[in-house]
Write a structure and sequence with these properties.
Blueprint (H helix, E strand, L loop, with lengths): L3 E8 L16 E2 L2 E2 H9 L3 E8 L4 H8 L4 E4 L6 H7 L2 H4 L4 E5 L2 E3 L4 H8 L5 E7 L7 E5 L5 E6 L10 E9 L2 H10 L7 H12 L3 E5 L4 E3 L5 H11 L5 E2 L4 E2 L4 E3 L2 E3 L4 E2 L4 E3 L2 E3 L4 E2 L4 E3 L2 E2 L4 E2 L4 E3 L2 E2 L4 E2 L3 E3 L2 E2 L4 E2 L4 E2 L9 E5 L2 E7 L4 E3 L4 E2 L4 E2 L3 E3 L4 E2 L4 E2 L7 E4 L2 E4 L3
Parallel strand pairs: 1-4, 1-6, 4-5, 8-12, 14-17, 15-18, 16-19, 17-20, 18-21, 19-22, 20-23, 21-24, 22-25, 23-26, 24-27, 25-28, 26-29, 28-31, 29-34, 30-35, 31-36, 34-37, 35-38, 36-39, 38-40
Antiparallel strand pairs: 2-3, 6-11, 7-13, 8-11, 9-10, 32-33, 40-41
Length: about 425
Amino acid sequence: MRKIKNILILAGGDSTRFWPLTDKVIFPFFGRPLIDYIIEGVVSYASSIMVVSHPNIKEKLKKTVGQRALVITQKEIDLGMAGAVLAAKNIIGNEEVLVINASDLLNFSFLSSFVKKIELGPDLIITAKKMDDYFPGGYLKFDKDKRLSSIIEKPPPDEKPSSLVKLVVDYFLNFHLLIEKINQFKEKSDDLYEKALSSLIKEAKKIEVFNYQDDFYSLKYPWQVLNLNSYFLSQIKKNYFEKNVFISKKATIIGPVYFSEGVKVGDYAKIVGPTFIGKNSIIADYALVNKSHIGDCCLIGGYSEVTRSYLGNKVFLHRNYVGDSVLADKVLLGAGTILANFRFDAQPISSFVNGKKVVTGLLKFGAIIGAESKMGVNSSTLPGVKIGSRSFIGPGEVIKKDIADNKFIFNNQLKNNLI
């Protein structure tokens, strides 16, 4: 099979919209960073793979990708995707390149069909997916001759030019032409890549559109971890038990489940699959874990319930309800703490991102809690609340809005966390 000369994976984003979680491209599922799955999916289709990294995660990325890809540092962070592309200009030159996003997971087996499009000799291939429901992205617009004419970014739902939403899977026959287009714009902004692409669409002699029809998951906002979590859990097809797993004869296991080394399940605990439990984690007596990801060295205390949630490593629960939530590493919930996940009016739950209200589209969405935060006994959160890293919530507090990093709330007073 013909291979694509260069695949350029863009991983230079600063993950600000992913707060209170960090580093979305190396966010782990089943103990492996997201980008590891992406490289695994594309490696057999490429002669050369390059990953453009944000400076903060360069060393972590190098460790993850090993010899499979060259890691390049993005210097012009403010230029967004264009800055990532420019970082590779002296390496790729005027060769062909496929540009993909490090935080988008697809079924990359589609590349075998994609290569057939390349063999038709186009200057540019744009990949799109048909979406019946409105998606806040770029929509393909075609002229009267059914030729792609432009990409309309986030049109009003009743003004969509088509049902095809553009994915970041862009093929360029000559990478240097993309660089030239980026450099032609005097005003520099984070949408420079999109502007350059729109200009190329207007001038390209031959454009192909590839209609991608399989699963697509994007990790832009923290609650999207829940969708990806469901996808990865769905890959568990049968029960799997590593060594030194102890399961009480009084426990109930409804598979499929993946129990890592050293997992212990207590009396009358119940595990409902698909569920993943990391190394040396303990599911105590009378606890319920339902369709969830539990990281390494966690304690799911007695009488706790974890449902459709993602827990990182070293998370400690004590008689809690955690529904449709994401808890980063080293989060602790005091006894009786509840993460509410459903509005009484049954409307989709919204969340604020960089000061702007964003509708998540989720009817059930609990909380997102950053690393090393703690919630005191009998505290609770309203649906969609986010709590930053290293923040402490006092006993009995009801958290109705987002709490920033390094804060301490007690007696309804918010202060800086000095611990």
